[in-house]
Amino acid sequence: MRLQTGGTYVLRFHARGNAQSAAVRVSGAMGTGDSVEIEPSETWREYETEIDLEPGYTRLVIQFGGGDPPDQVLWVDEMQFGRVEQAK
User: Fold this and answer.
1) What is the pLDDT of residues 18-40, one digit of tens each?
2) Residue 53 has pLDDT above 80, yes or no
3) Rounded to whole angstroms, how far apart are CA atoms 24 and 61?
4) CB-based burial of residue 84 (10 Å sphere; 0-12 exposed, 13-18 middle, 19+ buried)?
5) Of 43, 37, 48, 46, whose CA–CA distance to 17 is shortest?
6) Which residues is 85 bridged to in the sheet?
7) Is 59:4 a contact under the CB 8 Å cutoff?
8) Closest CA to 38 of 60, 58, 65
9) Which terminus of the chain has fewer Cβ atoms in its 10 Å neighbourhood, N or C?
10) C-alpha 24 chain-centroid distance
């Protein structure tokens, strides 16, 4: 996606599953970004982080670690990504 405005953005989602090394990674312009590691869980867990990003092209990727055992499951739901409005 292309961010027209830089600033603080929030990434929020729920996840569950038995994946041993999974993460949601945000890669922004000029080397900005962050990642949220997802822990194995049989119940839904909420994840949230704030990220300072520059305007420009930004990627959001759900990533599994290499060499993990087969047949791992990861459910991701209610994902939200948006700019945090600053108080005036």
Assistant:
1) 998 899 999 999 999 999 999 99
2) yes
3) 6
4) exposed
5) 43
6) none
7) no
8) 65
9) C
10) 3
| 14 CB neighbour count, 10 Å cutoff | 14
3-state SS, residue 36: strand
Q: Model pTM?
A: 0.86
What's the token pair of residue 21?
A: 């090394």
Q: What is the phi/psi pair of residue 29, to 5°?
A: -65, 150
36-49: per-residue pLDDT in tens?
Answer: 999 999 999 999 99
Phi, psi of 69 (to 5 degrees): -60, 150
| Pairwise CA distance, residues 41 & 21, whole Å | 12
- DSSP calls for 42-85: EEEEEEEEEEEE-SEE-EEEEEEPTTPPSS--EEEEEEEEEEPP
Strand, coil or helix: what is 25? Answer: strand
